[in-house]
Amino acid sequence: MADVFVDNKYKGTVKDPVGFKESIIAERRRGKIEESVNIAYFEEEDKVLVETSSGRSIRPLIVVKEGKSTLTDRHLEQLSKGELTWSDMIKQGIIEYLDAAEEENALVAFFESDLTKDHTHLEISPLDIFGLITTLVPFGNYTQGVRLNQGAKNQKQAVGFYAANYLLRMDMDVNLLHYPQTPLVRSIMHDISNYDRHPSGQNVTLAVLSYKGYNMEDAIVINKASVERGMGRSTYYRPIIAEEVRYSGGLIDEIGIPDKTVRGYRSEEDYKHLGDDGIIHPEAEVGEGDVIIGKISPPRFLSSMDDYSLATDSRRESSLVLKHGEKGIVDFVALTENQEGNKLVQARLREQRIPEIGDKFTSRHGQKGVISLLVPEADVPFTSTGVKPDIIFSPHGIPSRMTVSHMLEILGGKVGSLDGRFINATPFEAESEKDLRNRLKELGFRDDGSETMYNPVTGEQYETRIFVGNIYYLRLKHMVANKLHSRARGPIQLLTRQPTEGRAKEGGLRLGEMEKDTFVGHGASLTLKERFDSDKVVVPVGEKSGLIGYYDARKNNKAVSSVQDEDEEMSDVEISYAFRLLLDEFKALGLYPKLKLKSKF
């Protein structure tokens, strides 16, 4: 007797659990039971689980009977002619969906040639174990899982040709690669997903070589001439949107150049780019602090009836201004209406982004790195045939990461570029390393992809042969221009008096516990005196009570004890304002934070 659970709820018992399981599966294959219903029998626990709930992961597999696939050549012929559909195959019981529990009772073969009498199912394609993006990684079955996942994630962040109608769109923070290319080394998914219509990388020549220590820790060294010829060059677009909002009481925002009488009027210089309608003109070069769209709003709080008349002109300036560190060229301006019928003005800014030190690049195998140096072409090592690599990649990135697929792609890319063809690198079905090596030999190169290289400065031949080939590289959206910020002085928070946080708010860079340790470790501990006074405050503290006092304006700003002890001696102490705030919070809790003072000398 075995217990039966439907969606983890006990429903009863069955005498023959195996027969019960097989009868349900048979009924499902006949189409009598919903295709998403799954059943599994666990012998050790003697229980049958039936799952019908939504939200489970189920995947399709080909049914195998007596060691033979139920999907025949005749079915494939009918599929290619369009006589048979996917739904028909499910109804005929050729394909069925399994969830994690039912798969415990199944034995699945990767390939038809692997089938034995014990097998119950066959993979439609071994690619099924990967996702859509993961399948785009060439030679994916030669790489460990973590890097494969990272390779897939990196491709989602690549700068590419995201949409053909980009000129008509108002998208937030998008990048467009100027010279996108389709990869030489590709998988079947590149064709299925029409990758050629939205590529996101470029084929580059890469040398696996150490370059004066500049490509330590995953950094990459790039040939400056390659960048000058357009490698990795892109444009960054972002919109600036203003709306004429209608407020209760019939008041409305007004887009236009503000009058000098308006509260918060900037200066004539700030409105220099605006037309008569208060909107910037296309192709205007703008920088931080420049007004893009002029706007006047009614007062925030209408306290009296006078404000409703607006005769006193208590309206305020609320123009859209470029934030700290932003710059660009106005690409185009659109005037339209939103769903409420309010006037909407959209201005799109563009900025050319040329790869610079600190920009992030990656291959499709999770081998990401930032540019550490742009080397003039004259100083780039060259091969015996005069080829200068676009990227110099560190050899230390390979052994610990075990990304064999990265190396195979370099080899495959070399064969593809010399042969003038695409290399099939579909996981589990790729061209073999042996065939690639043999073809490279036929083309007059060494079969292992290595070449003799020369020192560009001295002209001497390197003692070791260097692995050189072609690989598809992606430029990622993480660029220095979007992240770089610094400040000396600037805005502070009201509560803690510490600098604001974040680049957009002109914030400071926080120096934490660990950063402090690095200063101390480098013998620069006095720097901390300067670093940690962003919220320095000098307060009078009572020698006896240990409480913070105050300066009394009626007594010529004399320091007075907070416990009103006339005889108490007060001393000025330098503390952080955040600490002072903490002491005040203790007092609010009814605790007595007593400061014990000791002389410095």
Molecular structure report:
The structure is a single chain. This protein has 601 residues and is an alpha+beta fold. It folds into 4 domains: 123 residues, no CATH class; 213 residues, Dna-directed Rna Polymerase Ii 140kd Polypeptide, Chain: B, Domain 6 (Beta Barrel), CATH 2.40.270; 118 residues, Beta Barrel (OB fold (Dihydrolipoamide Acetyltransferase, E2P)); 53 residues, RNA polymerase alpha subunit dimerisation domain (DCoH-like), CATH 3.90.1800.10. Helices cover 19% and strands 25% of the residues. The strands form 10 sheets. Strands 12-26-13-24-23-30 form a 6-stranded mixed beta barrel. Strands 5, 6, 7, 8 and 9 form a 5-stranded mixed β-sheet that branches.
Q: State the CATH architecture of the largest domain.
A: Beta Barrel
Number of E-type strands: 34
Largest beta sheet: strand ordering: 12-26-13-24-23-30
Strand proportion: 25-35%
The computed structural class is alpha+beta
CATH superfamily of the largest domain: DNA-directed RNA polymerase, subunit 2, domain 6
In DSSP terms (H or I, runs of 4 or more residues), the helix count works out at: 14
